[in-house]
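User: Could you check the structure of this?
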Amino acid sequence: MTHGIGEAAALLGAGLAAGTINTVVGSGTLITFPTLLAFGYSPVLANVTNTVGLVPGVISGVHGYRRELRGQRARLLLLGSASLLGGVTGAILLLTLPAGAFKAIVPALILIALALVIAQPALAGWVARRQAARGGRGEAGRANAAGGPVLWTLVFGTGVYGGYFGAAQGVILIGLLGIAFTDTLQRLNAAKNVLAALVNGVAAVIFIASTHIAWGAAGLIAAGSILGGQLGARIGRKLPPTALRVVIVCVGIVALVKLLA
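Assistant: Sure, the predicted C-alpha cells are below.
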C-alpha cells in the first residue's frame, strides 16, 4: 500500500507517541492500532503490522533504561522465559483463530486496556505505598530477584495477552512486579520494558514468518517508535501524565467505534 504525505506523517507521529508512551506507561498500541484502522487496514493486518512496527521502539526504550536494569539478571532470566512462552502462545492464537474472532474479542480487550490506563495512577500510587510500607528500595528488591511460580504464571498470562493484542500489557506488568518485589518503580519499569520487548519481539518474528505485514506502515511506525523510546526514557517522565492518559483514552474510543461500526 502506498502512503501519501499525510498518512505517512500520521503513522510516523503515531509511532513516536506510542514509543514514548510504551516506555513510560505501556499503552502505545492504543495510539498506533486505531491509526492503522483509520487508514483502512483490516483489524488483524493492523495488529500484526503494529506489533512488528513497535518492536524497535520497545528495544530503544530498554536501551534508554539500561542503568536501571543492573542487578536484575536473575529476575529477567526467569520471568523472561514466561514472557517468551506467553508471546508465542498469543501470536499462535491470533494466527489460528478466525479473523472474525479477533474482531469480536478486541473491543473487549480495548475496554480492559482503557480501564487499566484510567486506573494506572491509582495502581501506581498503591504500588508506591506498598513499597514504602515494606521499607524497601534497591538492595531489598535485588535480594528477592526472581519471584515464584504464581508470578511466573501471571507473567505468562500477560505474555499471551501481549502476543495476541497487547494494549496496556505494560500496565499489567508494572502492577505484577510492584506487588511481587520491593524495588524502585524506575527499576521495575525497566524490567517491564524488557518483558514487553520479549513478548512483542517473539510475536513479531512469528508474524513475519507466517503472515502478511504492511511493511511500509510498519517501517514508519518503527522509525517513530525508536525516537519515542529514547524520548520516553529521557524526558517522558516529565510529560504531563494526565494529558497522555486523555490522548490514550480518546484514541482507544475511536478504535472501539471503528471496530463496532
